[in-house]
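Continued from yesterday's entry.
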Amino acid sequence: MNWSVAFEPLLSWPLLAALMGPLALLAFVGLWFRQRGGWLRLAALAALGLALANPVILDEEREPLKSVVAIVVDRSQSQDIGDRTAQTNAAVEGLKERLARFRQFEVRVVEAGRTDDRTETRLFAGLESAFHDVPPSRIGGAVMITDGQVHDVPAAPVINAPLHALITGNADERDRRIRFEQAQRFGIVGKPLDMTYRVIDTGGDAASVDVRVSINGNQVSVQRAFIGQEMPLQITIPSAGRNIVELSIDRVPGELTDTNNRAIALVDGIRENLRVLLVSGEPHAGERTWRNLLKSDASVDLVHFTILRPPEKQDGTPINELSLIAFPTRELFVERINDFDLIIFDRYQHRDVLPILYYDYIAEYVEKGGALLIAAGPEYAGEQSIANTPLISALPAMPNGDVIEKAFYPRLTELGQRHPVTRSLEGSGQEPPRWSRWFRQIGIEQPEGEVVMKGADDRPLLLLDRKGEGRVGMFLSDQGWLWARGYEGGGPHVSLYRRIAHWLMKEPELEEERLTADGRGMVLDIRRQTMRDEAGPARIITPSGKTLDVQLNKSEPGIFTGSVETSEIGLYQVGNGDLTALAHVGPVNAPEFADVVSTENVLRPAAEATGGDVRRLAATGISALSNGISLPGVVPVRGSAEASGRDWLGFRTTDDSVLKSVSRVPLFGGFLGLGLLLLALGAMWYREGR
């Protein structure tokens, strides 16, 4: 009970003062002049004043509030190492049991440390969420159960109460890890790229260690590195697009974990400008279509020759009016032929400009990995066709002598609907296709490779074939310029021509059979590009060595995709059929695994600033639990008293309370007040009457 006196005047205070002031002045004047009955008049006046002020005795019934104590539990991935999870769980239950013995405490348990992207251990964010609705005067303190590797420790205390930390793990832990010191994000394909890395051993080992270097899952070298020193590394980027460079070291006896025995760098490979040789034969309306397209591609260096006047032509034109340079046949097709990524013959026919032996060089160039495109016109069906040269061994089809002159819509074949060169071409999804017609096509026989487009009477229009290590394409019409000129609305000539050229030059994105995987947050996305009707499931090997299957579903013709939510950060291996791919899920080289040795040093400054303490669960204490940990006792403390001792942790109690009810007893209420007032006035009247 809480007793107090309050006044509830019957008149307002200003009116009460105006009424009682003159009377009090008269009473004091009477006392000053020593008049008889002065003290009785003052007593009667005081009784009247108290009656009008109406004093009331209040009896408040209050319920004391509890102090809020937060238990912040670290559930980050580093807590899964060894027996840290068991220690954590036992400590949480032990603390809850100890705190439950005190009615002064309200306990809140917050599991924190595992952010959405698993990058860091953020316990203070969880601490703030635990106290977000608690006034500062009711915060009793907090205790963090963690391995000590916390990444959001503030510079100033976040609570005005003791902050304690109980550290899991052991004091003599050892870990060896590797990390990149300098790792570029981009590199030129086929060119050396310089990086640096460092191997760190908390055990103080100063020896050397073997470091395995792998690119896209393939080991390329083994280097000897001195522990603690920054070591140089030079690699060669093998392919355009995303490349995964991995450094790995062996696990040593007694090491905490081998999760950080790998370091990953993601390097985007950039191809140097592709070199294309375009040789145009007889001038025609679409001669500049290929030239304009290739010149507009920033990734292509184009060398273009147009043969306007063959050697056998004798028309009397003066020498000084002919071309300023001769066609450098030997330089292009013998000495520097391997410098080109693609050779295009646009309506070219054999007219002795190229010696017959040079066609053998071109065929050999294709067999060894080069690319050749034949953009055919009527000359391909004639007697001077390049099909009648030694180049025949590299060609995917022979002409049958037919030149079909009729209107037709180019259409995708069933194979072409799945092929990455022609798949999803704009306008191909309706019948007839939403593009213009063509009016000429060259007939062929015995086609090889893949027919991805068909023309008049369903004859092959676009062929793609592999010859040895190289690739060959054949476009059996010279009418593509109609699309470029916008005839009947035009067509997707830019997409089609560019895809053909880049497929011939082995662009990875245009491979018929391709498996890719990528991390999106903590989700692993898988994409399978195939010419088959079904892709089947993908087999995934997680960073910890576990395996799981993910069904790939058809998203569009030739594309099958699948996704799986993961819980581990690291490098995932994905396999489907004969193809494999690597993907890194989660942050690359996340701080969560940069250092996994348990420590008291990170949280100690923040704890000591609040009067708290940091100690290991494995240290000696007043009681040992069944799993071998020791847990300090819990003691309520008040004010600025010490909040920790040798074997105990203190939490502050609060003086805050909540008002439940109030009882009022007026002192001058009822007959008692009336009697006291009449007694005082009667005594004054009696004394004045004598």
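--- second protein ---
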Amino acid sequence: MKRTMRHITVAQAIVECFKQEQIRYVFGVPGESYLPLLDAIYDEPSIEFISARHEGGASFMAEGYAKASRKCGVVLATRAVGGANLTIGVHTARQDSTPMVVFLGQVNSRFLGREGFQEVDMEAFFRPIAKWVIEIREAERVPELVQRAFRTAKTGRPGPVVVSLPEDVFSKTITEAVMAETYVPKPAPRQEDIRNIKERLERAKRPLVIAGGGVKWSGAEQLLRLWAEKYALPVMAAFRRHDVFPHNHPCYVGHLGLGTPKEVMETAEQADVVIALGTRLSEVTTQDYRLLSPTQTLIHIDIDSDGLGKVYAPDIAVWADCREALSRLLDIAVQPSWQEWAAERRERYEQTAALPLEKRTLHEAVMASLGRHLPKNAVITNDAGNFAGWLHAFFPFGDGHTYIGPTSGAMGYGMPAAIGAKLAFPDRTVVSLSGDGGFMMTVQELETAARYDIPIISIVFNNHMYGTIRMHQELQFPGRVIGTDLGRVSFARLAECLNSCGFQVQTEQQFTEALLLALEAKKPTVIEVLTDPNHISVAATIQDLRAKRKS
């Protein structure tokens, strides 16, 4: 369906593109270089501008919103200074395969190339980390190129697109603007591909599926579950794609991420046929690119043709949308012979995922409480940091679209992403997990949440250090601490200063009481968990690391 509009400004045309994409929220920090676009948004009741405290926070909100809503995230910022600040969100969207379109006001066309105030070559600046970058200087081409930006962001492997416009272009008039719906191609596997996969599975003794973000973006989680059930296929989640498969399902055998238990690793190592489904087989998922061996058969199915063979040469490479692939794989006639092995690997996974009933650390107690008290459809986001190891190891993700985490490992992500997720799911509980180091990087966005009445719950594990870096520091230079200690900050009190609720807890009972209050609160809430600095990771203490190094 096409719409033709005549004699509208560039800013109005961009807003019409937003409406065409059913964009409900755009995020940013206001700037004088794109004021006409803000004014056009003011006139459009179906779109709300969320004014953040920092462009980096705004880009994380947009990225989290995109992951939750499965629509494009949209960010607005001004010139080089705003663009530089939001670059972290562009990098995150690129590594996480998240569709996002960034609109930047550029200096006036008359000043370009003169090193004008806050000028930088936007195309050169963003080209290495964005999927596509364009600076539009002709008003008549704005509808065409903005629609192309959204199409590019969503097509194939999703990713971030950056659109730069000189500030004088926003106010120019377009004679005729044609708006068309954006259709995203969904390639299906060939019959030959399905036949080849069937033949490999017929010879398999220990097959394994590694499921990644491509399954989530195509909305194929249920099809994956049906396929795994039909053929008794064990399934692992790729790094930070925990909700791709329910953890209580007998076919689920673990998560390939940071600190993966050796029992889970053994499953991947023992597999004779590995089906990589919608994953780029990243450094973390493949444990520094050492996970798979030449003796294993690799079947790689992904919508990104450039990613096939980038890490491992596949025996079978299938360029296809995961939903289309799974709908056809459901009909193959294979008689599984690996049920006993799959059941054994499930049992080994369950042993690693069981929380201790006694002598729990506070991290373990928090996971137990969250598992008991959060609604089944609650959405969890997380920051970067070792605290996330307990979430990855012990939280029982179930059915549904319930997890948002940065595969890029960006600090400061968790809480702003939760704001974006809550806007996408206003009727669901949204909880972010952060360490004190990462939370402080974007803590100002708590005020944004309060200002817009976005009642998220932020859990902050406070051990007064950059814990992940301390862990590596102790491994390499035990006892020689530099740069990783942090000052003592009361995040509960800071939350109150930012118009939110705050609780500080030190025990499982205190945490549960605070969580129950937070679930009933109508405003953003921070639960500050004071943790033992010695408990540096799920598997080790600082004392363990120093002793190991000395030995």
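The chain has a mean pLDDT of 94. The longest strand covers residues 2-9. Will compare against the first tomorrow.
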